[in-house]
Amino acid sequence: MSLYLASQSPRRRQLLDQLGVVHELLLPGPDEDAEALEAVSEGEAPLAYVQRVTRAKLEASLARLQRRALPPGPVLCADTTVALGPRILGKPGDATEALAMLQALSGQAHEVHTAVALADVRGRVWASVSSSTVWVAEVPHADLAAYVASGEPFGKAGAYGIQGRFAAWVSRIEGSYSGIMGLPLFETAQLLRQAAEA
Ligand SMILES: Cc1cn([C@H]2C[C@H](O)[C@@H](COP(=O)(O)OP(=O)(O)OP(=O)(O)O)O2)c(=O)[nH]c1=O
To answer: GO CC annotation: what is one (predicted)?
Structure first.
């Protein structure tokens, strides 16, 4: 019985491959509004937000599995949120928004929270969250503009990818590199072990 990874993120696929975990993708259909799941509620703290969204992704994925009458299997979901103080920085909608996010992150430390949730075939759920701090050097405006033009910020929380060119400006991290990239491998392996032993 293979594991379903319910994620459109190529980073998550790559990170799960790194663990050697065989999986299949369980992607949302055109009838599903993946963006609506990620709407921020008024006054919601980043850590509460990332856990709520991950849980919602898991529920939507389990419903999808049933709807499609696919063979049963455990389902894994995650969500990554960049937080600058109380501010949640999601995926930028356009270049202007990407540049504004990057300018806000320049010369500052921020948090990256990634929540992971796993449901087994009996509907039991295991969940975990990894939080990291990322220190970003002061980046000249022209360099940020060129970074946006490279296209790398799009589809990424906080408008950057630590695994890409942006790494040139990350002076220090405390936490989990894989968590910042989208799937904390220590926590994910722990969840998979817990579910296998339960
Ligand atoms: C901070 C950061 C985020 N990211 C990416 C990981 C995620 O793909 C994305 C955060 O958006 P998410 O909403 O967590 O994930 P997603 O929409 O890409 O995929 P899905 O919901 O289907 O699982 O940002 C990086 O690739 N590198 C980084 O350094």
So the answer is: cytoplasm
